[in-house]
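EI: anyone free to look at a 354-residue chain?
SC: sure, send it
EI:
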Amino acid sequence: MRYAARVLAAPPPPQPPRPARWLTAALLAVCACQPASTPPARASQDAAAPPGAAGAATPAPHDGAPPPRPAPPPRGGDGRPALVAAGDGAALDSRSPVRLPPPPFGAALFRRAPAGSSAAPRLVKVSEKKNQITDEAAWFTTNGLALPMITPAPGADAASGTFPSFAPARYRDQALVKAIDHGDHSALLYGPSFAEARFVAILDAAHAIVAFFDFESFLMPPEFEPKEAGFVKGSIGWAAVEDGVLYVSSGHRTYAASSKGKNAYLSAIELASGQLLWQSAPLVCNAENFVLHGDHLLCGYGFTAEPDFLYVLERATGKVVSKLPLKSGPEFLVEKDGKLFVRTYDTDYVFEIR
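SC: here you go
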């Protein structure tokens, strides 16, 4: 079986268009983040609620929306899951996801997430150099980096059998758009397209489903410019679990002004109950992924002419403790050997983590 990253697509204008990029399986094989309590989360018998229902977000058209971010290369090496026939989804189809209430769409702390109080890491820039924009695969390969994300081969669909057997290829009418294997758990993201991940299933190390959430209410900002309605419906970008808490990034891929700045959040959700513990300030995380680093989260935000930054957040509260300017929007963050490698639209950085 072969697996590889999806096609790399162009960001919205006015940023110069990026040519389509296919990362071949052969090349990728080398690539080795207090007000009163929030309302209780609830399970629904249906995957989607009708418009106007409690906890449901207002739908918006998607035609003409900006293209999705590229999928990163899959993990290589001996830890790679065996790729065999895709699961039939029966275990997932029989479950009703916990439908999460709307978040505050702004910085809020309801309850601290379980984490220590160690000093925040200090990021010291070691190097900075321009990249060729289309050379992402070379960046991963040259630096010996990888993300634990498994995707179908270019042009393949779920039925081709390129997903691991423990990951159902579909949840009802929703496709598996991201499969992230963190080793001790996996996060499976489902939606109508790669740019619209809405459902998140968490599996333990034995691949048993331990939690299943519907993030529909997180995806449509409460305010937006009417002419931007087709662009501001967001997506879940990345998900990881630590100490019984699910950390997720969410947001849309267009200008912050389109949703009046209510975009690109990190949120912490108690895995057992579905309770929102905290939500970060807006405009902190729209990179492909974020990094869990001890008691802190490392993430980044940027978009065309908007300010671009690398952020450090407290894992217990979501509070921003530091930020560093970048020359363009961050795309990937990978921690390795005490360093943080950051790939942005046109610049590659290496930071020492102190």
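EI: The helical segments are 25-28, 90-93, 136-142, 216-219.
SC: 👍
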